[in-house]
Amino acid sequence: MMHHETNGLLAAPGAEAPLGHHYEVDGRRLLLHQSGTGGPSVVILPGAGFTGLDYLNLHERVSAFTSCVLYDRAGTGWSDRVALPRTAAEVVTELRGLLRAAGVPAPYVLVGHSLGGAYIHRFAQMFPEDVAGLLWLEGFHAAWNDHMPEELHLEAQSDLPELDEDMLAGMRDWVEGMYARWPDGIRELLIEERLRPDWVRVGARERSSMIELATELRTHAHAGLPDVPLIACSGTGLDPGQDVFLSEELIGRLNGGKQAMDRALADSVPRGEYRVLDGASHSTVHIDRTDDVVRAIHDLVERADR
Questions:
Q1: Distances (CA, A) of 98 to 22, 62, 103, 104
Q2: Inter-CA distances, 157 with 141, 154, 173, 224, 264, Å
Q3: Which residues of 170-193 are buried (b: 16+ CB within 10 A; e: fewer)?
Q4: What are the AB hydrolase-1 domain coordinates in residue numbering (predicted)?
Q5: Which of 50, 105, 233, 245 sits a CA distance of 20 to 30 A from 95?
């Protein structure tokens, strides 16, 4: 497959993706990077404001024992522009087409970080035969409001201020720490991209439809989740910036709500398991507790029906 020039929404003008190839799906070029052999293949669905390369640390470890896929949704990273936000059905239909175009055979172990949790849920509703396992990694749930204090209901999220350029500049040390172990070239690229206001705006656009996403998932809840191994992981750490917007007491209730929500999800299916990742923050759970996340993925691969 020819590697085209890139013109993604987040990537700086003229920048080329350091890894992966573009595949055309419904007239759009989407970036996908695959390594490893065997199956079931692991597919990582990024959170809002993240791209596939943010999970390169997981990819390198997972591809040692099975095929692993990183990708950028349309409108993000090094994939073509698209109006945001989109429905979960649009996102997962696009992903399924991309995996087929790239020759990645089903079924898949789907890893959903943050907003990616909504998308793995909708994928499982729409294409259950293509799912071998599910990992919610601090992942979004339709039942968010059922477990959160009213101040943190989805309807209240729009009242939280966005990070401005001064606040982004103040986060440079934290961002540099995030990518400290990424390869040269990729590390510097991701640091600069993440500190650009455009990056933040794209993440905000994707997150702006969380109420609609929850409704979409609940509307199709009759489809249920397929009978596959499922692990739900929640962290207990503090994300930088949370203490700017939230009180210490409210942060504690937020973490408690996430733990109850993830436990309820795991308990709702025959082969569900709940795991606490102590000290891991929401944004960097896959970096703070890499070994544990890789272990969870490995367990799902091993437990998957062959």
A1: 9, 20, 9, 9
A2: 15, 5, 26, 27, 23
A3: eeeeebeebbeebeeeebebbbeb
A4: 42-296
A5: 233
**Domain spans in the chain, listed from the N-terminal domain onward:** 21-303
Residues whose CB is less than 8 angstroms from the CB of residue 188 and which lie 6 or more positions away in sequence, other chains included: none
Task: Say what the pTM is.
Answer: 0.92
A 10 A CB-CB count for 79 gives 31
> CATH homologous superfamily for 21-303?
Alpha/Beta hydrolase fold, catalytic domain (3.40.50.1820)
Nearest to 292 by CA among 278, 304, 306, 302: 278
Q: Strands, DSSP E only, in 138-259? A: 230-235
Q: Each residue of 194-238: pLDDT tens digit?
A: 888 888 888 889 989 999 999 999 999 998 999 999 999 999 988
Between CA 46 and CA 69 the distance in angstroms is 11
Residue with tokens 């500049």: 169
